[in-house]
Amino acid sequence: MNNTFARDDDSELNDNDPDSEIRFELTDNAGRWFDTGAELEDNRSIAVATPGVRVKFSGDSNTVHTRTSLVYPTGAAGMPFNTEPRKGGDDVTLTTPGLYIFVCSIHPYMFGAVIVDDPATAGLDLGSSLSMITGESFSSSSDLATRLLRTFFIATNPANWQNYASSTPWRVTYPNMDVHVDGSTVNLANALNARYGNDLTLEALSKPAIPAVGEVWVATQFETTAGKSKPGTVSAIDGGNWQVTRKVALPSIDMNNPHNLWADKDQNVIYATQWFDSKLAVYDRQTGALIRNVSVGESPAHVMTLTDNDRIHITNNGDSRTDSVMELAPLATEVLRRINIGRGTPHGHWMSHDGKHMVTPNVISGDTTQYNFRTNVIEAIVPVSGEFSHPVAVGMLPNAGKYYVANMFDNTITAVDMSTHTVIKHINLLENYDPLSGAASGPVGAWPIQTPVSPDGKNMVTANALSGTITIIDTRPGLATTDAAVKMLPCDPGCHGVQYGAKQGGGYYAYVSSKFSNRLLVVDPDPNADGDPSDASIVGSVGLFASEATLRDDAITGNPGMGGQGILPIPLVYNGWVQNLPASWSDQLTEAQRHPIQ
């Protein structure tokens, strides 16, 4: 056993005193969001201690965070532990031996872990049974438990991210330590390598055979540049040749973790939320030049416009107040008002095609709000799943009759009727998954995130972060397969963002990004154009790292093209937005793309 984890000398476990205190500093830095300041085998987000340890959370992040016990030993004293989103410090004392994984509910890939070890047992104690904050319990040797551990070690060490700019096989480095699980002692690295493999040859990048219309912009949120202290760029891809043409870092404002993107009706201006800050960046699409940097509130997550007046709406994901959606004038020239949605901490909202409705997933309260812009009232607040289910993103049918809410930690998607404000169906994305063995008998999606509906309303593509899969759901009405997952495709670690764009000659591509990878997947949800999405396939992949020809406003220094999150295809082709395109863009589309609902 590597003596970094030797228990006969507690000073080697952590630079903090493990018998009394562990300190996590919460930061904006990619991979080291929960930073102990002490490196254990290239990882600064895990610590080992003995029962009674006090865990203190502090930090110098530009925005608020929660301190939430995502995973803990079943029955552990004082669990679950959860705080409101805030800056400053909190602490918790851990007395029950086992594995504790903490997360920020606002930024749910920020991980920190503590192993509380009983010195009387051989190996470091993970606990025989672990529980999720949602209430689910599972064996510490199950596929679900080891998949969570693997995800933790990938997320918290940038050296473990998939790098498609390198020809070196992908290797995930795990701590070389003996752990006590289910009454036996195993080497953690050996067990994870045996279950998931290692030194894997990455697939070669391959351009789609059919070009796309326009461009694809991706928030490469973890890429670092020389002129900034904070991470994040936005990367532009030419849909004609699939080359990365521009990197926008905006060093003059130290753009901080750009997360989600949208455009004005003319497709000339791009809006980028800065999720680890309180600002919306506005820049020129053609030149990448900054137009303005607007204060909007804590942890702005998603941004969209209304189709009828081009006003901008931003969800303040870190704001616990009920008026947590900001409305800005077109081109973000001024903040007009705060909108009361009856809940705080909204994330990935969606707007209706007619400019009438907005629906928000409310992360901490476990529900969704339907807001009417015509009457300026809340029409409904609908519970979508259990406590701590973490509703994170919404997709909507193009005629606004129904919308879908991805519940990340609950592994479900909830379909809601917009007329009756009732839940139509809970789509269980783990229905075909055995959490003990990991066997899958059909499509599986663990930790669903972005889940838009296609512009023609026939399918929905969902990115699933924990399973590293893409699920395709049939949204056509009146079928046996309506609102069922009909296909599963492979994705990269931290599979996250999805948006649809126009394919040249007709049809659509769904673009999928991943946090812990630097490639963009191109999915054709209906390759033979028969409306049935069960034959959806990945038709290409594009590296998000720069070439010598890539224009940039700052020198790239690290994490090249990593952190793929929000996606913005230009032109916007969703129903309601596509009809407002200027002729220069509209003329490039087919008649069916210009009028997606026939």
Automatic annotation (TrEMBL):
Q: Could you tell me which residues belong to the region Disordered?
A: 1-21
Compositionally skewed regions (Acidic residues) per UniProt: 9-19
Any idea what this protein is called?
Answer: Multicopper oxidase
Task: State the organism named in the record.
Answer: Nitrosomonas communis
The record lists the lineage as:
Bacteria, Pseudomonadati, Pseudomonadota, Betaproteobacteria, Nitrosomonadales
